[in-house]
């Protein structure tokens, strides 16, 4: 089966590759890029969608992470998977907290509904976000750092090989 570059899947693959390469080519250290991605993933797990950008930029500044990579990391929580994401956070938080909070309706994710449900629902979702976000951020840090180092090493070897070919 031939890939159709104009299909939805083809567009998604091109979009993903483009953003992957943009992150790999950032003018920053592998540690800074990995820290930014990890912070972005962590904040992406928090139920604070309208404030994610502000929070992740503040954390990236505080922890000296790359701000662009941090903002890209928050894309883990996007409108398509947000109901499933929030429901998962709710279930984890509900299992860990001692009180029985309000019921969560994943079909109604308006901020007014979440505010009306109260701080108990928010506390459950934040607890779930912290519990799931910390291991995800740690894993993201090490995977991203390794990817950046390997990508840059391979790219340097490719460029060196090209230069030696032209130098002859």
TrEMBL record:
UniProt domain DUF2062: residue ranges: 14-155
Membrane-spanning parts: 20-42, 48-63, 84-101, 121-144
Pfam families tied to this protein: DUF2062
Superkingdom of this protein's organism: Bacteria
Keyword set includes Ribosomal protein: no
InterPro entries from the UniProt entry: DUF2062 (IPR018639)
Keywords on record: Membrane, Transmembrane, Transmembrane helix
Protein's recorded name: DUF2062 domain-containing protein
